[in-house]
Design goal:
The complex is a heterodimer of chains A (449) and B (298).
Chain A lengths: L1 H16 L14 H10 L2 E6 L7 H16 L3 E5 L5 H13 L6 E3 L7 H5 L7 H6 L1 H4 L23 E13 H6 L9 H13 L3 E3 L7 H25 L7 H15 L13 H9 L3 E7 L2 H6 L9 E4 L13 E11 L5 H14 L2 H11 L16 H12 L2 E3 L11 H13 L4 H15 L3
Parallel strand pairs in A: 1-2, 1-3, 5-6, 8-9
Antiparallel strand pairs in A: 3-8, 4-6, 4-7, 4-8
Helix pairs in contact in A: 1-4, 3-15, 10-11, 10-17, 11-18, 17-18
Chain B lengths: L1 H5 L1 H29 L2 E2 L9 E2 L3 H8 L1 H34 L4 H13 L2 H11 L7 H8 L16 H26 L3 H9 L4 H12 L1 H16 L3 H6 L12 H11 L3 H27 L7
Antiparallel strand pairs in B: 1-2
Helix pairs in contact in B: 2-14, 4-8, 4-11, 5-8, 11-14, 13-14
The chains are: A alpha/beta (449), B mainly alpha (298).
Keywords (chain A): Signal
InterPro entries (chain A): Bact_solute-bd_prot1, SBP
Protein name (chain A): Extracellular solute-binding protein
């Protein structure tokens, strides 16, 4: 009871102090009244919480699908508690978990970070449910379910269902490439360096980077890491078998730093620019490339940019001396977690909803409406989709060796901030050695034993 | 009416709603926060609290990031007191003297105070934009001071002062209003008497107005200090990661990260406790310092 009071009150204080900075948050059909009425009407009530809310096409599809599900299942009431704004979402979710009110279905961006929740029963082990319904289990792309298998972290079971794939790539402006005399997209890092030189010589900024949002440089570093130490190396870094001060990891930090210091790949002052400015620079033809992932495609097509036909993408180049990692691709998976504290009838209703939302028709509907790449078989890009999205779906099908973000595989909760801030500080002058040492020191202090 | 005022039952009934709100949202959270600061808890209901004694505090004061945040917030508070109160009161004296457009200037200086922090931060983001497209950098370039252009929020030497400028711009209107409210209560006869005795210009402000407004000055200083020691929003929006080399990290931002991002509720509560104690100590110390100068009764 004490924990519940303090969590709610702490959240109240934080919400008050943040009231001014989360104006864009929106919620779905959050209704406390319906909760009371559902209990009195004998319906099973379940809550659904995602980051898709407000007026976005994907949020609309979710609302429609939930409404249809409730029509078909009059004994189940689904409350959509989705919140778009990241900080507000995370706050609400963590307060819910700390008070024992875990949403029945929710999203959280972690893999190894789920260990503690899995161990303490906050999350439902989905292994039995998937084994009991082989048709449903086999509808996921091969290996996709293993993303959330936590056996490597000492907890047996699958603790989330992959829902979307964010496939990393370098998006580029074909017209600017032509202007700089680049005839083919770079496949190797040496070719990328050549392209950067040619763009600089033509007076074109090679990369747009919103460094103020530290994840942008973090993603570039993660791709370099994937191409030099591979998926197994990244996992070993997460489990502690490898250290950030190892020479190969250090080398990746140095290569990232050299992109600025030696190759002049970014515009001056990029460290203080946010990701929205980065996007507007790219969409107005001011910069030739950005490193981003597939969800940027619907964002680009929602803008009034005049150069959309000139935009395409190519996979992050590989290092010729590390050809064994040529096909390692960075793919961020976002998944749905189910509450581990549900009653039997809630669990039954929740599984019913999640299966409904993962039927081929439901997934195809979301892809058609919002151009999201999904980790399911037999899903195709809609006929009227832009070519770049069709290309992205086709490219995703070719990926056989994927890896997520390095911190996804580490149980150290502070790593994401410490490493990304460290990488930005490194771009501003700190040496790669000092950066690696600082990150490793933080891991040593904060990684749970 | 007089009978109601003397009846303690009525007094209690009317005081209860405010007292209940105060207890629920101020006193109890502070007490619970102190209680939690002696425990570790990962934010999961089924996991019991683990008593760790003073470990959270010991770890905090050995953490260079926390020490840096304390240093930053004390610098922030000191500079804010020096800037916000004098500028606010100077504007108050100035506007008080205006014969025309008094309301216009009052409203103009007060407007930043009523804007949301996110709107203000967005505005200043354009001003501090790091390239030659930033408003401040553009002005410097046009003034021929190109070598002074900066990445204002990125450079560790300028980031904190850039944030202090935002807070100052936002808050001075508030202290101007406090000054104006105080000035309306100053009897004109005393000012006239002072003028006859030779008090003009700055002397009039220093020897007549300031002593008579001393209570307002004290209140303003305490408000600046307590406001700054718990500052979060401006820092979070303009430098979400706490700045290059933690140049803008403040305890409240660290508390938010520890409790809500990293799930270290005990550490977060310990930081909250330190902020509370620090606010109390600095406020009392400032008040004692300022109480050496007696306010003038009139």
């Amino acid at each position: 009871m004490k924990k519940r009071i303090i969590s709610v009150l702490l959240a109240g204080v934080m919400v008050c102090s943040m009231a001014g900075c989360s104006g864009s948050s929106g919620s779905g059909s959050d209704s406390g009244e319906s909760s009371d009425s559902s209990e009195s009407s004998g319906k099973v009530k379940i809550t659904f919480m995602s980051r898709d809310s407000g007026d976005t096409p994907i949020a609309k599809v979710y609302e429609d699908q939930i409404a249809r599900f409730m029509e078909e299942n009059p004994d189940i009431e689904v409350q959509n508690d989705s919140i778009y704004e990241e900080a507000a979402y995370n706050n609400k979710l963590k307060v819910a978990i700390s008070t024992g009110e875990t949403p029945n279905i929710f999203y959280y961006p972690a893999i190894a970070g789920l260990k503690e929740w899995a161990e303490s029963g906050v999350l439902l082990d989905l292994t039995d449910a998937l084994e009991a319904d082989p048709e449903w289990r086999d509808s996921f792309l091969d290996g996709a379910l293993d993303t959330y298998r936590l056996d490597d972290y000492g907890v047996e079971g699958i603790y989330a269902l992959p829902n979307e794939l964010n496939v990393d790539a370098i998006f580029y402006n074909k017209a600017l490439f032509e202007q700089a005399g680049i005839t083919e997209t770079p496949e190797t890092m040496d070719e990328l360096y050549d392209a950067i030189d040619k763009l600089n010589a033509a007076g074109i900024t090679p990369f747009g980077v919103g460094g103020k949002d530290t994840w942008v440089m973090g993603h570039i570093f993660n791709n370099i890491l994937a191409k030099r130490i591979g998926g197994d190396g990244i996992r070993a870094l997460g489990t502690g078998e490898k250290s950030w001060t190892d020479s190969d990891v250090l080398e990746c930090l140095q290569i990232t730093k050299d992109l600025k210091d030696e190759k002049n790949a970014f515009m001056e002052g990029f460290e203080g620019i946010d990701v929205n400015t980065q996007m507007s620079q790219f969409l107005s033809g001011e910069v030739a490339m950005i490193s981003h992932s597939s969800p940027i495609i619907p964002e680009m097509f929602a803008s009034d940019s005049q150069i959309l036909d000139d935009i395409s993408f190519f996979p992050f180049p590989y290092f010729t001396d590390k050809e064994e990692y040529k096909d390692t691709r960075v793919v961020y998976t976002s998944g749905w977690m189910l509450s581990g504290t549900m009653s039997e009838e809630e669990e039954e209703a929740t599984l019913k909803l999640v299966k409904y939302m993962t039927t081929p028709e439901a997934i195809q509907e979301r892809m058609d409406a919002a151009m999201r790449v999904a980790p399911y078989k037999n899903i195709t890009a809609p006929e009227d989709a832009p070519q770049i999205f069709k290309d992205m779906v086709a490219y995703t099908d070719t990926i056989t060796d994927s890896i997520g973000e390095y911190f996804d595989y580490d149980t150290c909760s502070t790593l994401v901030d410490v490493s990304r801030n460290g990488i930005l500080n490194m771009m501003l002058g700190t040496s790669a050695e000092d950066t690696a040492a600082a990150i490793q020191a933080d891991i040593d202090a904060n990684r749970p034993q | 009416m007089e009978k109601i005022r003397r009846n303690k039952k009525y007094i209690c009934i009317f005081l209860f709603p405010a007292l209940a709100v105060y207890l629920c949202f101020e006193v109890i959270p502070v007490i619970m926060s102190i209680y939690f600061s002696f425990h570790e808890w990962p934010g999961i209901q089924s996991v019991p609290l683990e008593f760790v004694g003073l470990d959270n505090f010991v770890n905090l004061f050995q953490n260079p990031v926390f020490l840096k945040s304390l240093q930053n917030v004390l610098i922030y508070a000191a500079i804010s007191v020096v800037l916000q109160v004098p500028i606010g009161f100077a504007l108050g004296f100035l506007v008080h003297k205006f014969m025309h457009f008094k309301r216009f200037f009052k409203a103009s200086f007060f407007i930043p105070m009523i804007l949301s922090v996110s709107a203000v931060s967005l505005l200043w983001n354009f001003i501090y934009f790091p390239t030659d497209k930033g408003i401040l950098n553009t002005i410097l370039i046009h003034l021929g001071l190109e070598n002074m252009t900066q990445q204002w929020l990125v450079n560790p030497d300028t980031a904190l002062i850039a944030l202090i400028a935002v807070s100052t711009w936002t808050s001075v209107g508030y202290y101007m209003i406090i000054c104006l409210a105080g000035l309306t209560a100053v009897p004109e006869s005393i000012i006239e008497a002072g003028e006859i005795d030779g008090a003009t210009g700055l002397k009039k402000i220093g020897y007549l107005y300031i002593p008579m407004l001393w209570d307002s000055v004290k209140m303003s200083v305490i408000m600046v200090i307590t406001g700054v020691l718990k500052i979060f929003d401006t820092v979070y929006i303009l430098t979400p990661s706490g700045g290059t080399d933690n140049s803008t990290i403040v305890p409240a931002l660290l508390m938010y990260n520890e409790a809500y991002r990293y799930g270290h509720y005990g550490t977060g509560s310990a930081i909250a406790t330190v902020i509370f104690v620090l606010s109390a100590v600095v406020s009392v110390a400032s008040l004692k310092l300022m109480n050496r100068r007696e306010s003038v009764e009139y």
